[in-house]
Please model this.
Amino acid sequence: NAALFDQTYENFQLNTFTGISFVVVSIPEVTSRGVDLDFDVAPMDGLVFNAGVTYAKTEYGDFTPPFPALFRLPNAQMSFAPEWSGPLATTYEHAIGSSMMWRFNVGAKYTSEYNTGSDLNPAKLQDALTLVNARLGFGAQDQKWFVEAWAQNLTDEEYYQVVFDATLQTGTFDSYLGAPRLYGILESYGQRGEKP
Model:
């Protein structure tokens, strides 16, 4: 599958925390142009590969910022908008006898660097990263029940969800970090399945 996109948003509302208060700024125009490609390949029964890539040039338009802290915004790549991103995953499932099966899935999502701050301060930049998730499961072929061991952020990447100005501390920043490695076991039951 392939898609080209060219979108224009008018009167984009940007919420900015200044370290003292939240300020909403109306930006006359934001544009997003790029291409998205994705494909699935099944080279053998039970095995599927999924992959994709997106290139997106998503920019604030040319405007006069209402206050000096936003001087970096005109004609710049938007915050939280990486230029490149893409997933890669594989799933394999195999029957065990006539009624049971096991399934394995591993997937990764790459994201190029992007700025997490609404003012595009370079101190708020998140470097490029790849997050990996995986699942290994066993259960009934009719999906009445299934047990899976799962892990998210398998390589325990440290990354920022958002970086923002610390309250009343000029030049100091706080952040919310992304979730660390998480893992567990999940039981699921179909409509006709009954939990013992």
